[in-house]
Amino acid sequence: MAMSKVVSMAEAIETYVEDGMTVCLEGFSHLISFAAAHEIIRQERRNLTLCRMTPDIVSDQLVAAGCVTKLVASFFASGSAGSLHELRRRIERHDPAPLEVEEYSHYGMVCRYQAGAAGLPFFPLRSYAGSDLPRLNPRIRLVDDPYGEGTVYVVPPLNPDVTIVHAQRADRHGNVQIWGISGVQQEAVYAAGKAIVVVEEIVDDDVVRSDPNRTLIPSHAVDAVVVCPRGAHPSYVQGYYDRDCAFYRRWTAISKDSGLLQAWLKEWVHGTANHEEYLDKLGVDYWDDLAVAPRLSEPVDYGSRK
């Protein structure tokens, strides 16, 4: 019988995230593991290369905490709620230190993960035609089409040392089920050397087997499973809790002031021992506005239609 892969968050980060690594922390608006990012900050990892589609708040926090020296990403914004001011300070003014950036389009990042997962030397795409990105990023290259006339842009594979993703649920062996916006979690896991999956809950094997279409990441691709309810806050988890849009709006004012940002990290991350303490600090009532009601399909009596 397969052994359980369930470990604590602290153990997962301590075991699989080392200084200098390339770390993918994916989740496209949905299912962003802020809890894992906060544990990386608590354990004071340094010189990381962070890979993310839409860097958003979690990237601002990791960079401000001194964990990240290079960012490989696309679409720099706070979940469409404003700018990421820590990133802007680093990129525009090198304040308090420069941040190396390797920028792609969303689809360019998808192609990089796909190439990494499939063991391909590159991945072709059309979407850079007419764009300035190839001029800014020399890793986006124009090559001859080997099957006909003309050229096509290509991007290199992306193979992180470790990928961290969030999901709704898994069994103890690491069969992971995701629904809603699935982003590139599956590709990012297969592209990585190691994979940590953070879930809202562990369910019995029979639950996973009863709905196999939701198993996007099978156990053979997973090294560790961390049970961390509400670990994606302030992003959301389909069927569990809603996106904390008010926090996203508040982040603009916090990140604009580097002093406020550092004070927030000191209080909410370094000042809490783990995600459970973070949740306790938010309070039970905080979740009332983020609760989601069941959305059950009702049978339709087609015989009654005329």
Q: Measured on Cα atoms, how large is the radius of gyration?
A: 20 Å
Q: Looking at the structure, what is the overall shape?
A: globular
Helix-strand makeup class = alpha/beta
Quote the average pLDDT: 93
Biggest β-sheet strands, sense, barrel: 10 strands, mixed
DSSP E strands, number: 13
In DSSP terms, counting alpha (H) and pi (I) runs of 4 or more, how many helices? 11
Low-pLDDT ranges = none
Task: Sketch the topology as an H/E string, one letter per element.
Answer: EHEHEHEHEHEHEEEEHEHEEHHH
Helix content: 25-40%
Query: What kind of oligomer do you see?
Result: single chain
Distance between the termini: 55 Å
Strand content bin: 15-25%
InterPro entries: CoA_trans_fam_I, NagB/RpiA_transferase-like
Family: Belongs to the 3-oxoacid CoA-transferase subunit B family.
Keywords: Transferase
Pfam family, one: CoA_trans
What does this structure look like?
The protein is α/β, with parallel strands linked by helices and 306 residues long. It has 11 helices and 13 strands. It has helices at 9-16, 34-42, 56-64, 85-93, 106-118, 133-136, 185-191, 205-210, 245-256, 258-270, 275-282; strands spanning 6-7, 22-25, 48-53, 68-74, 100-103, 123-125, 141-144, 151-155, 162-170, 176-177, 194-202, 215-217, 224-227. Strands 1, 2, 3, 4, 5, 9, 10, 11, 12 and 13 form a 10-stranded mixed β-sheet that branches. Strands 6-8-7 form a 3-stranded antiparallel β-sheet. Helix 3 links the parallel strand 3 and strand 4 (68-74). The chain is globular. The N and C termini lie far apart (55 Å). The model has no long low-confidence stretch (mean pLDDT 93).
